[in-house]
Structure formats: C-alpha cells, structure tokens
Write a structure and sequence with these properties.
single chain; 8 strands; about 220 residues; alpha/beta; four-stranded mixed beta sheet
Length: about 220
C-alpha cells in the first residue's frame, strides 16, 4: 500500500504524512489486523517513481526523480530500477526544504512564506502544492477558486489565472533546479493533480536553465 509519509524504522509508526491524522499511528498493523493478511507499505511518491522508472515516462533511465504535485508535494528517487529510501527513510522529501532563490513579492514571484503542517515556515510544499497555486491566484484576483479551476481559466484567457500559472512554473522550476544541482537525474516525472497543467511541460524546462549550475540542461 502506498501511503503519505512512511513507517518510521525507530517507532514502527507513521511519520511525515501530510494526512496528519496518520502520524504516530500503526497504520500497516491496523490494516493487517482488519483484513487478516500481511501488509507492506511504502511512501506513495516512492511507489509512483518506481512505477514510472519501470514502465512509464522514466523507463530505461539510470536516475529518475518522480514528483507528486497535489495536496502535498513529495518525490521518490529511483536509481537503476531500485528505490533509494535513504538512511532515515526520507530520500526525496525535497518538499520540506525552503524555496531556493526567492524573489520579492509583489512584483516578483515568491509569495510570503506560509506555515507548513510540519511546523516550519516557507517549505517548498507550501508554494507548489494545490493550496500554493490557490494562494498565488488569490493574491492577484481573490475568489477562492480551486487549483483545477484556475488551470482551466488560464487556458481560456483569464489574465490572473495565466499569470498565476507563470508564477507557479517559476516556483516549480527553481525547486526542481535545486534537485538537478544535487542529484542530476536523467528524467523528472510529474504526477498528482497539478501535473495535468500542460503549460508546465514547456515553461519549467525553459525557466530552470537559469538556476541549474551547468552550461546546458539535458534533464
């Protein structure tokens, strides 16, 4: 079962889940008791990355960084077909680093830092999750619209929505440039609800070149 967060090797309980009611709970054991059979669980972004590296958009690549953009922001790392979990089981949790290269707001494209469920302020997740896109749009044209609605409006000529997608793309490009500078993956695959915003696939690779520490970007 793919779950938000992961099972702590120290306590055997869920940690790091943006579905915060799961934190500190023996989810895998509870499900095993309920259904009467063994249960194995893994971080949902790791499952996504492994799937994409096996027979999806990253098939055949040496290093794949699989990103989930939705209510939260997470990622998984797969090298030569194997998940990299890390010594603490948190490899790929780049959504809980601070946004790199912030630009002043208004006028720039980094809204003020917001509290994250993890207890810190300004995590990448707070900028590029669905709630982050909504916050960008509300700063331009308050209205309480959903991320899906904003994406649709951007494609139908709504100026505030189109500008929101541009700002969001810049935030995502900077966050992923940070990953490229550390991991330098062959392929980055996007998943989650926000991965359906088609302009991201040409905007982000154009934008991240200015932050990637290389004379060319083949990612």
């Amino acid at each position: 079962i793919g779950i938000p967060g992961t099972i702590s090797a120290t306590t055997g309980l869920v940690k790091n889940a943006n579905s915060t009611w799961l934190i500190g709970r023996p989810l895998d054991r509870d499900i095993a008791v309920r259904i009467g059979r063994p249960v194995r669980s893994a971080n949902d972004a790791n499952c996504f990355a492994l799937s994409e590296a096996s027979d999806g958009a990253g098939a055949g690549a040496h290093a794949v960084f699989g990103v989930i953009l939705g209510t939260g922001v997470g990622a998984g790392i797969v090298i030569d077909g194997r998940i990299v979990a890390g010594a603490n089981g948190i490899a790929g949790e780049w959504g809980h680093n601070p946004l790199p290269w912030p630009l002043p707001w208004p006028g720039g494209n980094a809204p003020p830092a917001e509290p994250c469920y993890c207890g810190k302020n300004g995590c990448i997740e707070t900028y590029i999750s669905g709630a982050g896109l909504v916050r960008i749009y509300d700063s331009l044209a308050p209205g309480g619209k959903s991320a899906e609605t904003i994406a649709g409006l951007a494609g139908s000529g709504d100026g505030a929505a189109a500008r929101s997608i541009e700002i969001y793309a810049s935030l995502l490009a900077r966050a992923l440039a940070h990953v490229i500078n550390i991991l330098d993956p062959d392929v980055i695959v996007l998943g989650g609800g926000l991965s359906n915003i088609k302009p991201l696939y040409h905007l982000v690779p154009e934008l991240w070149r200015q932050w990637v520490f290389s004379d060319g970007v083949e990612t």
